[in-house]
Amino acid sequence: MAVTEASLGPLHRADGSATYSHAGYSVICAVNGPIEVQRRDEIPDEAAIEVNVRPAVGVGGPKERHLETLIHSTLRHLILTHLHPRTLIQITLQILTLPESDSDLAPSSHTHLLPPLLNASSLALLHAAIPLSTTLISTIVCLPHSNSSDPVKASSSTAPITDPSPAQLKSSRSSHVFAFASNGDVVLAESEGVFTIEEFERAGEVARGICLGEAMVGKDGDVEMEGEEEGGVRLGGDGGEQRTNGVGEGKKGVMGLLEGAVGVKVREGERWRGR
């Protein structure tokens, strides 16, 4: 599995910031808000959300605008906008690095960029202390072509590929991005390519195990919550035993990694207390 790195607070002039790197993709996110909003964008009973995605090279185009729409529609269901009416929450995402073979993908392909963008956004929102109903974890899986000419056999024998490289994405039959809340609810499902319902469901279960970890997913697919609260990030407990190089990873999947990144920042902030 590809190495994942996450950190909070790399930018000192933003209310919240985070970096997220995985499989050659690196993203930095800055969050500012709640801040004053222009009168034409003001919403009387909730905060407006602005998402800006900047590519690694050049200026943004239709693909970046589409990514902004997907991220906006996902985050607006997580952010408790009603707590800050007539304000603006600004989310800026800068793609820092891409894999060398990323240029081989079709210019219109966008699913491979969603997981790092969403995970960086989730961490930056936490660092900015923006009120959230839950946290978010995202990953991508793809389905390769099968050698069988029988559609039924091809569907049953095709195993989803986790952490696909650009070359694998290019040669795959379909790619699927899933984002899960910390309680296991699906908050985003975006797919490209040709696939069956059974393949989509199988890809979703594989993605759920990656994001939430095998220890939190029951045999029937239900998520086993360890804490009393279903939202937010759970710190303490056995989380310290699952951290690698200061970042939590292990049976909790990507969720454990994000918990570890937040835990590192919390401990740094408490050093002045002499703990």
Features:
11 strands, single chain, five-stranded mixed beta sheet, 27% strand, four-stranded antiparallel beta sheet, alpha+beta, Ribosomal Protein S5, domain 2, 275 residues, 6 helices
Task: Describe this structure as you would to a colleague.
This protein is α+β, with helices and mostly antiparallel strands and 275 residues long. It contains six helices and eleven strands. It has a single domain, classed as GHMP Kinase, N-terminal domain (Ribosomal Protein S5, domain 2). The chain is 27% helix and 27% strand. It has a five-stranded mixed sheet with strand order 1-2-3-5-4. A four-stranded antiparallel sheet has the order 7-6-8-9, with helices on both faces. Strand 4, helix 1 and strand 5 form a beta-alpha-beta unit. Helix 5 packs parallel to helix 6. The longest helix is centred in the last third of the chain and has 17 residues. About 12% of the residues have low confidence.
